[in-house]
Amino acid sequence: MALRVLGIDPGLTRCGVGVIEVSTTRVPTLVSVHTLRTAADLPLERRLLAIARGLEALIDEFRPDAIAIERVFAQNNVRTVMGTAQVSGLALRAAAERDIPVALHTPSEVKAAVTGYGSADKAQVGQMVARLLRLDEVPKPADAADALALAICHAWRRDGVPAAATSAGSASGTRLTPAQRAWRDAEKSVRTPRLGG
Amino acid sequence: MALRVLGIDPGLTRCGVGVIEVSTTRVPTLVSVHTLRTAADLPLERRLLAIARGLEALIDEFRPDAIAIERVFAQNNVRTVMGTAQVSGLALRAAAERDIPVALHTPSEVKAAVTGYGSADKAQVGQMVARLLRLDEVPKPADAADALALAICHAWRRDGVPAAATSAGSASGTRLTPAQRAWRDAEKSVRTPRLGG
After folding, report:
1. CB pair distance less than 8 Å for A44 and B97
2. Distance CA A4, CA A121 (A)
3. How does pLDDT run across A121-170, given as a tens digit for each residue?
4. Closest approach of chain A CAs to the CA of B66, in angstroms?
5. Which residue of A has its CA nearest to B73?
6. Is A188's Cβ below 8 Å from some Cβ in B?
7. Domains annotated on chain A, with CATH
8. What residues bind Mg(2+) 1, as annotated (chains A, B) (predicted)?
């Protein structure tokens, strides 16, 4: 019994997608990792369509029990934030259309979950992702490592407080799929050593 | 021979959609106007899915020759800007998926096009939209009037400089549908009195 989570680090130029499974002992395993790219000289609407179709194809291929997306803030890099927000909207819609529970996590939540502190840098997140997933190398680019970190963060948090608690970002934190319920029940019956923090 | 334009004022709580046609003499006529609404207490992903499906249904019903969307800036109202950007991403994707040319216009461009100056207020835009479309009342809510103003702005600008000239927002300003080409050719053969500015 494993829970499969697909993490998305939204972006127009590079959109990271990481799929992991966690066992009932909270050990995460890599399933697949991808980076969707679009050329900066394509019209915006073509870039969004390409990313949306890429995300939907990966979701349909890996059929995750849950999807986790990095929460975008208006205060982020102004040059890229609108494209990032647009991609996150496409990802949220794809999840809702498939009735897959989806949650948003902030970069701080993700860093805290995988490294133990919320202000870790990209390199530290990548190294911890590689260690947690028992990989020989740090996943590249950083967007791919971040997507895996998001998926791990979500898998570890899903029993706790829903991550998306603000009015602008409520998410289906309380709806569990049958797989998630089974996972939670199974987990209750075993000791659960806590990794990464 | 008329050019049909569908304008979208993106928003999560209220998304305005206005459809107009312009004749070869640049006179705009109302085809249809709608306001898509979602409840603030729905999960974000459900709101986005509902708006996306609503937009797609209207696009498929009215089959516009072009789509015009209000350009969202990161500096706008921080509380609502992310939802607005996400909806604009869904609208752009819907246009690209249907191969319908799409352009982004700033609020200033729209105000200047319909009222003659870029800092007009909402009431002035609404009044001018009503006058241009020969309506007895100002379309309500403001989102609906804004969507119609966007569509009028786009119809009047389509021969000029593409509205979306920044790298983050390139749009298919140079691709004309057969209907648009025919419209442009027809227009060249008649006198074109310039309205609204």
Report:
1. no
2. 26
3. 999 999 999 999 999 999 999 999 999 999 999 999 865 434 333 333 33
4. 13
5. A82
6. no
7. 3-188 (3.30.420.10)
8. 9, 143
Name the residue with tokens 């000791």.
Answer: A191
A101 to chain B: nearest residue by CA?
A: B45
Segment B178-191 shows an average pLDDT of 54
Given the residues B70, B109, B146, B187, the one annotated as active site: B70
| A185 vs B107, residue with greater confidence | B107
List CB contacts (< 8 A) between B38 and chain A. none
Q: Which two tokens stand for residue B153?
A: 């702005």
Which burial class, exposed, middle or buried, applies to B175 when counting CB atoms under 10 A from its CB (0-12, 13-18, 19+)?
middle
Contact A48 B170 (CB under 8 A): no
Q: At what angle do helices B122-132 and B107-115 cross, to 10 degrees?
A: 50
Tell whether A189 lies on the interface with B, counting CB pairs under 8 A.
Answer: no
